[in-house]
Design brief:
Elements (H helix, E strand, L loop, with lengths): L1 E4 L1 E2 L4 E8 L14 H30 L1 H14 L2 H14 L3 H17 L4 H4 L2 H16 L11 E5 L4 H6 L5 E6 L7 H8 L4 E3 L11 E5 L4 E4 L3 H13 L12
Parallel strand pairs: 3-4, 4-5, 5-6
Antiparallel strand pairs: 1-8, 2-6, 3-7, 7-8
Helix pairs in contact: 1-2, 1-3, 1-6, 2-6, 3-4, 4-6
C-alpha cells in the first residue's frame, strides 16, 4: 500500500478505482487572411458562451443557491471584460491570428498573470480564465464537452475547471483528486456545494491509473492499493471517535 497526502476539501471517505481525466487537445490553425471574419467569429462564440453560462447559472441557482451560482455570472462578466476582449481582438487584427489562436493566447497570458499574484485567492482565478477561454474555443470549433464514465470511479487530473464539475455524471463520480488545484478556487466552492469528496495537491502519477484507492477527507490521505483489513481498521478508528457513524468501506 502507498499513502499520499494532500489537502481535503470535504470531510468524506470514499473508496474506488482511479481514472485519469484528460482534456482533448484541439488542433488550431494559427493565422488567417480575413481578420474581419475572425473577429466576427470570436464575438459570435463569445455570445454563445455567455448564453451557456446563463444556463449553468440558473441550473446551479435551483440546485445549490445564489452564492455558488454567481460563479457563472462572474464568468460571463469575465468574457465581456474590456482587457480580455481587446487582447483577443488585437491578436486577430494586429497579427492576423485566427479567433481560436487569439483566444488560446489570451488564456495563456491572463492565466499566467493571475498565477503570478501574491494572493492565493487571486491565483485561483487563473482557473476561471482557462474555463471561459475553453468554453469560447468549444463554441468556435463546434465541439461539446462530454465527460463520460464507463463505471464508478475517482477522477484524477492536474486540476478541474469550475464548469467541469457541472458536467460530471454524479451517479458514477465517487470523488475528485487533483495534483495541483486550490482550496480557494471556484471549483472548490462548487465541490463543497455539491458534496463531492475531493482532495487537492496529491502527487499521483499515471502509473496509478485503474488502481483501487481510498480517499480520507479527514486527514487528506489517499491510500493506493489498500487491503480490506486496512479499510476495516480505518472504519473502526473513525467509528470509535464518533465519525462517520455509518462508514462502510470495501475495495472495488
Amino acid at each position: 500500500m502507498q499513502v499520499l497526502t494532500g489537502k481535503a476539501i470535504m470531510e468524506q471517505i470514499v473508496a474506488g478505482r482511479l481514472c485519469f481525466y484528460r482534456r482533448p487537445a484541439p488542433q488550431i490553425q494559427l493565422y488567417t487572411h480575413d481578420w474581419r471574419q475572425e473577429i466576427n467569429r470570436f464575438h459570435r462564440a463569445q455570445q454563445t458562451a455567455i448564453l451557456e453560462l446563463t444556463t449553468l447559472y440558473h441550473r446551479a441557482l435551483n440546485q445549490v443557491g445564489e452564492g455558488v451560482a454567481s460563479i457563472f455570472l462572474i464568468h460571463g462578466m469575465l468574457l465581456e471584460d474590456h482587457d480580455y476582449v481587446e487582447t483577443v481582438r488585437g491578436l486577430i487584427n494586429g497579427q492576423g491570428a485566427t479567433a481560436e489562436y487569439a483566444v488560446q493566447m489570451a488564456e495563456i497570458s491572463f492565466a499566467a498573470a493571475f498565477t503570478a499574484m501574491d494572493s492565493p485567492y487571486m491565483r485561483a482565478r487563473a482557473a476561471d480564465i482557462r474555463d471561459i477561454s475553453q468554453r469560447v474555443l468549444r463554441a468556435l470549433m463546434g465541439g461539446r464537452q462530454i465527460l463520460l464514465m464507463d463505471e464508478p470511479a475517482i477522477l484524477v487530473s492536474d486540476d478541474y475547471l469550475p464548469s467541469e464539475v457541472m458536467d460530471f455524471d454524479q451517479r458514477r463520480l465517487l470523488g475528485l483528486i487533483t495534483r495541483k488545484g486550490s482550496l480557494d478556487s471556484h471549483t472548490a466552492m462548487l465541490v463543497r456545494a455539491y458534496h463531492i469528496p475531493a482532495i487537492v495537491e496529491v502527487p499521483l502519477t499515471p502509473r496509478c491509473e485503474g488502481r483501487p484507492a481510498l480517499m480520507d477527507g479527514y486527514t487528506g490521505n489517499v491510500y493506493i492499493d489498500p487491503e480490506q483489513e486496512q479499510l476495516d481498521q480505518l472504519r473502526e478508528l473513525y467509528q470509535a471517535n464518533g465519525r462517520p457513524k455509518g462508514l462502510a468501506l470495501s475495495v472495488r
